[in-house]
Amino acid sequence: DQQVKQNSPSLSVQEGRISILNCDYTNSMFDYFLWYKKYPAEGPTFLISISSIKDKNEDGRFTVFLNKSAKHLSLHIVPSQPGDSAVYFCAASLETSGSRLTFGEGTQLTVNP
Amino acid sequence: DTEVTQTPKHLVMGMTNKKSLKCEQHMGHRAMYWYKQKAKKPPELMFVYSYEKLSINESVPSRFSPECPNSSLLNLHLHALQPEDSALYLCASSQLPGGSWREKLFFGSGTQLSVL
């Protein structure tokens, strides 16, 4: 049972345009959400996070939006740059579950020059 | 130093071999993790150590044996593995609750394991 889903395995955008990566979850008890970025031959690196008490968090070119009623979050990257090309993982956690993160399957973003 | 260092980067082993994966961090983090990632799949949690004690074992088979000798080191001992255990094994670390620990796991680059 995949509790965190990223339904788009890949996304291709033009440099300078907006990239929107989507993530859906089924467990309404999740209270913290994170995005990680992964380049080939490297481990995932933390990008941005959002608590369930917020609906938006912004950090530079990256903004995460959370819609709790729809159990949906999205990552917006604007403007997109070729260096943003990577696999992006959505992850969710429960405070009561300790250190467990549940990851989605990832979306390969390609930003074309 | 914000790195988590994993060795070796690649490992090929037979089903009767015994090998160990190593992980090291010097960020003062007191939580360390092992994750397993199969191709085109998300990372899956295997073990969590908090203050050098095993706090989470996600029902991992006993052919995987974790060890945390001190706060900077984490090992994963492998014995009698199966071909389906071939995967990327990722180590991670984080600060413990009380701060913003839930925001950041720092991952190593992983060990790509092939079991023949």
Task: Characterize the structure shown.
The complex is a heterodimer of chains A (113) and B (116). Chain A is mainly β. Chain A has strands spanning 4-5, 10-14, 19-25, 32-38, 45-51, 56-59, 62-67, 72-77, 86-93, 102-103, 107-112. In chain A, the strands form two sheets. In chain A, strands 2, 4, 5, 9, 10 and 11 form a six-stranded mixed sheet that branches. In chain A, strands 1-3-8-7-6 form a five-stranded antiparallel sheet, with no helix packed on it. In chain B, the strands form two sheets. In chain B, strands 2, 4, 5, 6, 9, 10 and 11 form a seven-stranded mixed sheet that branches. In chain B, strands 1-3-8-7 form a four-stranded antiparallel sheet, with no helix packed on it. Chain B is globular. The mean pLDDT of chain B is 90. The A-B interface holds A 4, 9, 32, 34, 36, 41-46, 49, 89, 93, 95, 98-101, 103-106 and B 4, 6, 31, 33, 40-45, 48, 50, 55-56, 90, 92, 94, 102-110.
Which properties best describe this structure?
heterodimer; A: 113 residues; mainly beta; five-stranded antiparallel β-sheet; 53% strand; globular; B: 116 residues; four-stranded antiparallel β-sheet
- Biggest interface, and residues per chain? A-B, 23 and 26 residues
Helix content of chain B: under 10%
Radius of gyration of chain A: 13 Å
Give the rounded overall mean pLDDT of chain B.
Answer: 90
Helix-and-strand structural type of chain A: mainly beta
* Stretches with pLDDT under 50, minimum 5 residues of chain B: none
Helicity range of chain A: under 10%
Number of helices of chain A: 0
N to C succession of SSEs of chain A: EEEEEEEEEEE
Structural class of chain B: mainly beta
String of helices and strands of chain B: EEEEEEEEEEE
Categorize the overall geometry of chain A.
globular
Mean pLDDT of chain A: 93
State the separation between the terminal residues of chain A, measured CA to CA. 38 Å
The biggest beta sheet of chain B is recorded as:
7 strands, mixed
Strand composition percent of chain B: over 45%
- Contiguous helical run count of chain B: 0
Broad shape of chain B: globular
